Amino acid sequence: MASRMSSAMWSQRFQRSAESNISLQGQIRQMLVAAILDGQMSLDTALPSSRELADQLSVARNTVVLAYQQLVEEGYLISRERSGHFVNPAMLEGRHGFVPPQTVAANEAVGRPDWTQRIARLPSLQRNIVKQASWQNYEFPFIYGQFDQTLFPTSDWRECCMKALSVMEIRNWAPDLIERDDDTLIQQIRTRVLPRRGVFAMPDEIVVTMGAQQALYLIADLLANERTTIGFENPGYPDARNIFLNRHAPLLPLPVDEGGVRPVADAHLLAQCDYVYVTPSHQCPTTATLLLERRHALLELAQKHDFVVIEDDYESENNFSGAPHPALKSLDTADRVLYVGSLSKSFAPGLRLGYVVGPRDLIRELRALRRLMVRHPAAYIQRAFATFLALGHHDALLRRLAFAYKERAEALKAALDIHLPEVRHVRITGGSSCWVEGPLWLDATRLAAEAEAHGILIELGSVFFMEGLEQRQCFRMGFSAIKLEKIEPGVRALAALVRAQCPQA
């Protein structure tokens, strides 16, 4: 007769959580699967009976019965008549009996490769924007680009996901698309997204990516090398800068003012470039919008000096101060602009959906390159988002975001004017952040550390500047993730920390 495992140990392993969105049955299954795969359950010992385990976990017996049945169906457990439930040995093939190698001290690791010498460039050493993983636990999270659950259209997105899970839809997205994208999503980008920016493209002039960041990586991998000079906004987007540097491309800093880059004033710099990377809708990080006359001037110089503009339409959808300026791509008549956009930044950054619009010859090569990396972004997500666009949910969301962000932007501006008149901030015309330039005596690194200790999160400005050109008194304040009523008290508390640094204080 087989021995039976005691149910007492499960009360310690079972982490019942009222906040979990997983049912009790699901939590029990999760607990048992972890114990099976971790090798903590003997093959010849029966699990506790459903009644015993239910009593130990203080749940209904039927909940345990259903959990056991599901695990039998999935092959984790086998049921033996009058003996109970046992671990299925087949689930441990390749795992059972595995003994991890003994830890060897670093100075005893003879013959092991030295990875620090083998890796030509260490990405972990790049200067990146750093965000607290636990930002939601801070009272005043003035950070950029984070998800606001109060604005997320939960029911609308769930509806689109459920539609994508219908039998007919599964047949469309479940096969390997290889180099293709979801036809419905491409059509929605062409007819619903791009026309809003004055851009028109054929299907073979669009490629979907895993966020705008992968779009930039693909472009850099295909076009940039140590012989291509890239004009880059300073301050500018750190991830884009790191992507180009990873291709060993020389970067030429282009100064930015309240009107964006300065094509006429810096024509001598642009003449040296093969590519020019810009964020004209809301410049990263200052949020300045590139003036219309400067857009035309930039395109004229691109023709004259034979360079290509990489337009990252950064936060173009978050506009709340009148009609947006036309995208550079919409003014382009000579294929001088590669247009990079995001579908998920304002919606849910974790979805990672972006796209590139460009000449069909280039798009064909980007698709072939993407195939080597990920083949294509998840087809299920593409189909669900296509439905989200088609049903008008995305347009409705953008309207709600515009209202909410405008309200928060006005509250932040008012609070800065009242509590921090000594700082200069760029006028907010859209987007979801505010660029702040403090007095020359302000040390933003010290301020950020002290602010964090007081429950306030801000983002250092120095990381946006090219190395050697940093301005230590700058910082960025996002307002996409902070509650409206927290903005004024947060700025007031930050102002006290700023003034504590003042030499005359």
Automatic annotation (TrEMBL):
Membership in a protein family: In the C-terminal section; belongs to the class-I pyridoxal-phosphate-dependent aminotransferase family.
Limits of the HTH gntR-type domain: 22-90
Keyword field contains Aminoacyl-tRNA synthetase: no
Keywords, comma-separated and alphabetical: Aminotransferase, DNA-binding, Pyridoxal phosphate, Transcription, Transcription regulation, Transferase
Highest taxon, organism lineage: Bacteria
UniProt name for this protein: GntR family transcriptional regulator/MocR family aminotransferase
Any Pfam family the entry gives: Aminotran_1_2
CDD domains: AAT_like, WHTH_GntR
GO molecular function: transaminase activity
PROSITE patterns documented for this protein: HTH_GNTR
